[in-house]
Every structure is written in C-alpha cells, then in structure tokens.
Amino acid sequence: MKTRRQFLAAAATVAVALPARGEIPAGTNVPSVVPEGVPLFRFIQINDTHYQSPRAEVIHPTYLQANGRVHWLCDALKSGGVFPPVDFILHLGDMTHQHSVDRRQELRTFKALLDTLPVPTYTVVGNHDNVQGEGNPEKEAPYREVFGERFDYTFSHKGVGFVVTDVSGTGMPDLPPARVLRREQRFREHLDSFGSQPVIIAAHVPLLPVRESAVLAKSFGFVSHYVREPGLLEIVRTHRHHVVAVLSGHLHLSGTVWSDGVAHIDVCGTASYPHDIALHTVYRNCLRTQLLRLPSDLLVPSTNIHGAHRYGRDFTDATHPDYTGYLMGSAAEREVLVPLRRPPRP
Ligand SMILES: [Fe+2]
Ligand SMILES: [Fe+2]
Question: What confidence tens digit (pLDDT) does each residue in 126-136 have?
C-alpha cells in the first residue's frame, strides 16, 4: 500500500477556523467555540462508498474506480499511519451500489471488508442498501441478514449519545405512512432516552437542503435532496437543547447548514468527486468536524453527479458562486465547530 502520511498530517495541524457568518446561508446561526483540552475521542465518517462486489454481474460505470477508493481507505485505516487514532467508524449508508442481482452477496462482501478494520463500524442503511425499501420487510431483508437490526438504533460513546435513523425511503410514493409514524416515534423515544446528554444524529439523507433547494433539486435530480417528511426536523427542533449535529450523506456533494444552533453536515462520500470523508473530533466542550478529500491520484472528476458530465453544465447558488464551492462547500462548511453544551431548554 502507498504511504500517505502527509494526507492526515495536514488535517491534524489545521488551525482552528470559526465559520465566517458571511459564508453561511441566511437564516442560520453559527455559534462561537474554541476546543478545550485534548480530544476525548475521534471517529471517521464514511458514506456513499457504492462498493460493487468483484463478483457482480455488471460493474456499473457511474462511480468509476469506487472499489479502489474503498480499498485505499480500508488500507489507510488498518495501517495506522494515515489517520489519527479513531475509536470507531460511522458509515452513513449506500455502502454498496447494488446493481448486482445478489444483493446479499454484495452486502456480505462489503461487511467482510469492514470486519478487517481495527475498530468497530456502526452502519446506517442507505437507499442503495435496501433499494429504497424503508419499511418493506422483503427489500430490507438482505441488509437485516448481514447487519442485523441496525435501522433505527442508538449507541453511546464517552458521554455522547448517537441516534441513527432510517430515512432511506424518503419521498418515495410507496413509503408506508405507518413507517413514517414509526420512524418519528422511535426517533423521539431515542432522543428522549439521552435526557440532556449531547447527541449526534446520523441519517443517510440530510434533514435540510444544504444548497438552495430549487437548485439542489435540479443538480441532484431526485426528490430526496432532503428528508421530505417534516416530522424529524421538528423533533430535532424540540431537542435543540442537546442535539449537536445531524450527519448525513446521499447527495454526493459536501456542505453544512445551521438551524437552531444545530450543524447539519452532509459529506460527499468516496464514490463521487470530490470524494470527501469526515474526521470528527470530540472535545469536552465541542465537536470539531473536518472534511477531508481522498489523495489526488484517487480523484475521478467524471464521478461528479452534479455537473457538466451529467447535465452539460455546472451548478452554483447564491452562496456558492463557483461550481467547486457548490460541490465542496466553503472553508467554513468544511471545518465546523459545534458546542456540546447547549442553552438550557426554554
Ligand atoms: Fe449514494
Ligand atoms: Fe443515497
């Protein structure tokens, strides 16, 4: 494996940069915080790996060399010299591409890769992992058989609660209404279970549009450019006294928006250009999130799904006046600091 010690060395020494208010979409609020003490723990977010089993019938060309980026990442995590030590991996979904006939085999192959990593992985189901089958037992079966009941669940790590929610079927006409009610009931119960403890939420699809909604709808091309059922966002608002951040993927671009002091951070993932992952560092007073690109020799611009390769033109919005900023987010979106201590509940 290639050694790329410089890759994360740069990340480890990045100066603390507070978000500039002028770079954040209107109507948001950005708290000020400086990390205190040494890190309590770190974890890495990976998502939208769109891995295809080498045994798949057809290797789908959309995400050229996606498997190679997954293998590089696994090797980097195992080598111990690329990233700072992390306690666990959080995979935000679309682990596999699943154009294979045998979805179980695809998921099993990917899980076997995760099982080689030196730290545990917590998974979130993505729409490619269950073919948009949220609430459909038949479509969920392969993921359930391979990863167990990791749909709506919680875990706790060194004083921080994590709430995982399955939103893989958002916006689909066949999403069962009973599933939406159940999704929101479980989400509320899980947030309640942590009392006033700081909580990080993990959902495959962002709860808010991270670009101008009308532009993002066009560049993404699917109705699920944010979670279309509004209940979860309302529940986050009622729990804003202890929710720190909402982490997501699915869009295949990177960006951060703020709402009620909560950071909504969406990460591109490895399959699509610009191929970001996230390093999350928890201090006693704040969460620090840094978006990191994979090494330059792994970048494949044609995998950008928001631009000229797909549409014959690139996209911008009011706060991202060039297409690179539209794809990657501003510097303030790519290095985010969020306080763990929240204002008291009103
Ligand atoms: Fe994806
Ligand atoms: Fe997705």
Answer: 999 999 999 99
Report how far ligand 2's centroid is from the alpha carbon of 225 (Å).
Answer: 9
Does the pTM of the predicted model rise above 0.70? Answer: yes
Question: Could you tell me the distance, in angstroms and rounded to a whole number, from the CA of residue 221 to the centre of ligand 2?
Answer: 12
304-307 contacts at long range (C-beta below 8 A, 24 or more positions apart)? 304/252, 304/272, 304/273, 304/274, 305/62, 305/220, 305/221, 305/252, 305/272, 306/219, 306/220, 306/252, 306/253, 307/219
Residue-number span of the structural domain to which 334 is assigned:
37-339
Dump pLDDT digits (tens) for 7-48: 444 444 333 333 333 333 434 456 678 999 999 999 999 999
How close is the Cα of 74 to the center of ligand 2, in Å? 21
**Could you tell me the distance, in angstroms and rounded to a whole number, from the CA of residue 31 to the centre of ligand 2?**
30
Q: Output the CA 93–ligand 1 centroid distance in Å.
A: 7
CATH of the domain at 297: 3.60.21.10
Ligand with minimal distance to 204 CA? 2
